[in-house]
Amino acid sequence: MNETTEIKNFAIEIVSQMSTEDRARFNRDEWFEGVGNLQAGGMDHVSTDAILDAIEDQIGERWQLDTGTDGEDDVLLGTREDVEADILHHHDLDEMPSNWTLARL
After folding, report:
1. Is 78 left (phi over 0), alpha (psi -120 to 50) or beta?
2. Nearest by Cα to 102 from 76, 90, 89
């Protein structure tokens, strides 16, 4: 198995153990030190950045919904189109209110 495949498989294993909320709230800086423990578990020949990149790739796109003062802020997973459709459906809206923003994390 080549190193790229090994890193990807390792990331798949890590992400499969994460809850949806943990995936949505993934923060590369907070995980940086924890990756040292992951490296000790058999990936010591792989850089921290390579592991974090692979984990981010497996998590996929993350979006921060800011609803201004409407109290519905959230972090969502998926493509922008899917996330927008989910927001509109969840809130029974035809379009997003002008004070709401959706930013890729």
Report:
1. left
2. 76
Distance, in Å, from the CA atom of 41 to the CA atom of 5, rounded to the nearest integer, reads: 17
The kind and range of the H/E element at 90 are helix 80-90
Q: What is the pLDDT of residue 42?
A: 64
The domains of the chain are located at 3-59, 62-104
Distance CA 66, CA 37 (A): 34
pTM of the model: 0.65
**Exposure string (b/e) for 36-60, b if CB count within 10 Å is 16 or more?**
eebbeeebeebebebbbebbbebbe
Local structure of residue 78 (DSSP, 8 states):
S
